[in-house]
Amino acid sequence: MDFSSVDDLKSLILRSKASSRKRLGESAELAYKFEPHSSYSSPSARSCLAISSMAILVADLVTRGTSLVPSHFVRPLSDRPNLKQAAAVDSSFPLIDLQGLHGPNRAQVLNDIHQASVNDGFFLVKNHGIADSVMNDMMEISRRFFRLPESERLKSYSEDPTKTVRLSTSFNVKKEKVSNWRDYLRLHCYTLEDYVQHWPSQPSNFRKITSEYCTKVRELALALLEALSEGLGLLPDYMDKALGKQGQHMAINYYPPCPEPELTYGLPGHTDPNALTVLLQDDVPGLQVLRDGKWVQVNPIPKALVINIGDQIQVLSNGVYKSVLHRAVVNTDKERISIPTFYCPSPDAVIRPAAQLVNDQHPPLYRSYTYSEFYEKFWDHGLQSQSCVDNFLV
Fold this sequence. Notes:
Blueprint: H1 6-28, H2 43-52, H3 58-64, H4 83-88, E1 95-97, H5 106-119, E2 122-126, H6 132-145, H7 150-153, E3 165-169, E4 183-188, H8 192-195, H9 206-231, H10 238-242, E5 247-255, E6 267-270, E7 276-281, E8 287-291, E9 294-297, E10 305-309, H11 311-316, E11 326-328, E12 336-344, E13 350-351, E14 369-370, H12 371-381
Parallel strand pairs: 1-2
Antiparallel strand pairs: 2-10, 3-4, 4-5, 5-12, 6-11, 7-10, 7-12, 8-9, 8-11, 13-14
Helix pairs in contact: 1-2, 5-9, 6-9
């Protein structure tokens, strides 16, 4: 999509308003019990507010000024974040030093990774081989992208999930009834030479900085896949081979400040459909993980990366490793940027529990399937509290 004039941009926004009216009307029914003193306290009034201030991206809605969350972002009462509850829970997650992964302490590091993947499905790593300068540059270029003029950013906008480069908002805008307070730039990253020329050309150095970061994250992901395989008693290259010709995707998530964060999510609870996720985040808290039935905040640690097990590794491990529910919440004061890298199987990879982990005492928990079959169901399924992987139980 390219804009040759301001009129082109206005035309797109007007089309977006028209196509959104039906969705706004439906979601208004979910927006109830608001503050009685507000002049926009009724669902219909919030819906009118949403249409009158319509912007394609959340960032531009915030820039134009809004003191309320428009109706199509408002969750029903039964599905709203309890922000105070999560903040009060102990949020310590394993922090694993990867410096010993290739030295005499390898066995201890492998055990630490194994235990974290069994018990939490989430852990943090330090001394991971990605230089501070590379991470800082990646975070800064991401921030600069979302501060570009609206017309420049919207050159990358698309609602087509098959596109290898696309700027979008929420999650699946064509199907969801309630939107999420998030914009994101989605990039395919591997192999780089196949995709980098299609990435945004602005800000300057975006392609160079992002390429360097993607390359280093891939090295880390491969090392972690090897460690996870060994932790299960499998050959070091088992998961690498099981995933076929792997894919690597990145999402640069932008969560603007939100006037009423208690009514909506950056992203609701979900598990990741891929194999492994490596997350770079800024210093603003927002990531929460469901642990023992309670939402627990994952506090950012300088220089550390967050690792979480995806659905495909849960299946390959026959349920030994856990892909757990997590979500993103927003706040009133600060923007937040998070950059997850999703390490994925190839679409034609056949995913099934490793034969070495299946016996009479441990029968297979999941049927075999191709990753393309899984991802199609995930995309249709949307971000829900029930994991998509449950659809593939034996």
